[in-house]
Structures are given as structure tokens and as C-alpha cells.
């Protein structure tokens, strides 16, 4: 651990105690924060003791707290995710059931079970690394980020827009990601998932989630290989040529040791067509 400048770790118990100074960072698991050098960081604000329930239901959305761990997320079942028994399956979700995405994305972490038990959904999203699988999950299901503002109150924005670049977000100074809200309607869609890495346990090269609503509206979310999530929306299932054209028009491909931009593009084109056929 290279946090040699840290002088204080505060653990707020209520929102009234929650404030983040200029030279402080939110600690919501710390699996990344404790692994890199952080020059000039003098304080940590540990939000894991605020008592947020990992998963809650409202009439219109599934709420996942920022402090929900990857392990807790991975253990969710169809019946736990849906309050309507008519929507809850036998406990064995099919690959086209959006509930399957929770396990598929959790399993996309390049991390051991020990990390799963402390890494959080909100931490992964706010870190904004291209390969962040919680970003992929939230964006793929059209989740909204619920953000607590420092002066009180909250604001909301799509997670797909919250992440703006590599380790860059639309969070303003002092703001804290409280939870993500997944519209219930998205849990009634059919989904498809594709991911690839350069080796079996490698970091994600590209990750595609396709989702088709009962109305026919189809959304392809490209992440992992882009600097931020990219969503391609169609009123109905697109033609192969139109879908390929839209994927090739993406202009924010990432290029690093885990995959070149042209390889990420080529694999995304292939996966998009596979998912189009699968959902059609």
C-alpha cells in the first residue's frame, strides 16, 4: 500500500456526516485504491458503514447500493431480483434472461474470490476503467446513477453517461454515487452477452450486451474495449449491414497491452452480429 500521505480515515454513520474534502477520496472497498500510489491524498472517507441495503425493490426499479459487493451481486437469483412471482423463474436463469447478466458480468472481473468479497459495484463504476464489468452491467440494463450532492439532495443520470473516459466520470467534487437504479422494464427484456480477452484469465478486450424489449426495441451496449460505454439503439432488430455500420462508426476504441483498437473493433463487429442473430 502506497498511501503514505493519508492522515485520516473517516467512517461516517449518517448522511449528515458524509462529506468529501478536496484532498480526500471515497473508500468503497478499496481494492484498487490500496493497490496504487496516490500522491497528495490525505484522507479517506469510508462509506461502507452507512448501512445501505445491498439490493432493494421499488415499484419501477431494482436498486443496487454503491456499497453492494460483487460477491453479494453474484449470489442474486431471479426470485431475489424480481418481486413479481410471475416474472420469477425456477431459480435457473436462461442465457437470454437479463438476470444471467449479473453473474456473467461479475465473473468478468480479473479478481479472486477475496476481491469479490470487498470490491463494490459503486467503486467499480466510479473508478471508470474501460474493463469495469459493473459499468457494462449497469449501462447494458439502462441503469440510472443516483448521485448524492454535497449540499444535499440528489441528481440522476444514466450510468452510460456517467462514465466519460478512462478513469473519468461526470461526478462533481464532493458528490457520492449512492446507488444504481435498473428499470424494472429492462428486467423483462431478453439479453445476450459476449466477452473476450487475450488469454483465459485476461482483462476484458471487449464486452457486448444486447437487450431486446418485448416491443422489439433493441439496444447494443459496447464496453470493455472503448474508453466509455457506447449504446446503439434501434426501434426494432437492425439489419446486419446497419448494425455493422453503427459498430464501425464508434470512435473511442481503447488501445493497450490487453488489446489493440483494431482487434477490439473486429471482435465487436463479430459479437454484435452473433447477438443480433441470437435475439432475432
Task: Characterise the protein shown here.
With about 280 residues, this protein is α+β, with helices and mostly antiparallel strands. Helices cover about 25% and strands about 25% of the residues. The protein has 9 helices and 14 strands. It has helices at about 70-75, 80, 100-105, 115, 120-125, 135-140, 160, 240-250, 260-280; strands at about 10, 25, 45, 55, 60-65, 145-150, 155-160, 165, 170, 175-185, 190-195, 205-210, 220-225, 230-235. The chain has a 5-stranded antiparallel β-sheet. Strand 4 (about 55) and strand 5 (about 60-65) form a beta hairpin. The radius of gyration is 19 Å and the shape is globular.
Amino acid at each position: 500500500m502506497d498511501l503514505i500521505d493519508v492522515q485520516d480515515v473517516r467512517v461516517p454513520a449518517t448522511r449528515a456526516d458524509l462529506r468529501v474534502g478536496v484532498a480526500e477520496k471515497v473508500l468503497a472497498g478499496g481494492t484498487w485504491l490500496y493497490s496504487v500510489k496516490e500522491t497528495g491524498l490525505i484522507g479517506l472517507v469510508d462509506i461502507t458503514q452507512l448501512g445501505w441495503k445491498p439490493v432493494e425493490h421499488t415499484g419501477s426499479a431494482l436498486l443496487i447500493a454503491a456499497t453492494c459487493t460483487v460477491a453479494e451481486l453474484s449470489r442474486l437469483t431471479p426470485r431475489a431480483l424480481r418481486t413479481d412471482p410471475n416474472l420469477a423463474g425456477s431459480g435457473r436463469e436462461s442465457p437470454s434472461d437479463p438476470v444471467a447478466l449479473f453473474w456473467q458480468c461479475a465473473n468478468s472481473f480479473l479478481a479472486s474470490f477475496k476481491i469479490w468479497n470487498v470490491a463494490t459495484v459503486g467503486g467499480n463504476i466510479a473508478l471508470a476503467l474501460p474493463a469495469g464489468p459493473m459499468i457494462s452491467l449497469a449501462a447494458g440494463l439502462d441503469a440510472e446513477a443516483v448521485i448524492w450532492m454535497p449540499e444535499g439532495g440528489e441528481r440522476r443520470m444514466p450510468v452510460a453517461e456517467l462514465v466519460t473516459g478512462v478513469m473519468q466520470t461526470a461526478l462533481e467534487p464532493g458528490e457520492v454515487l449512492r446507488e444504481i437504479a435498473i428499470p424494472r422494464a429492462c428486467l423483462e427484456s431478453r439479453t445476450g452477452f459476449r466477452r473476450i480477452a487475450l488469454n483465459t484469465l485476461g482483462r476484458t478486450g471487449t464486452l457486448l450486451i444486447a437487450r431486446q424489449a418485448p416491443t422489439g426495441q433493441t439496444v447494443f451496449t459496447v464496453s470493455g474495449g472503448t474508453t466509455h460505454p457506447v449504446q446503439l439503439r434501434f426501434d426494432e432488430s437492425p439489419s446486419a449491414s446497419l448494425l455493422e455500420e453503427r459498430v464501425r462508426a464508434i470512435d473511442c476504441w481503447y488501445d493497450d497491452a490487453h488489446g489493440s483498437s483494431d482487434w477490439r473493433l473486429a471482435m465487436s463487429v463479430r459479437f454484435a452480429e452473433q447477438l443480433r442473430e441470437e435475439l432475432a
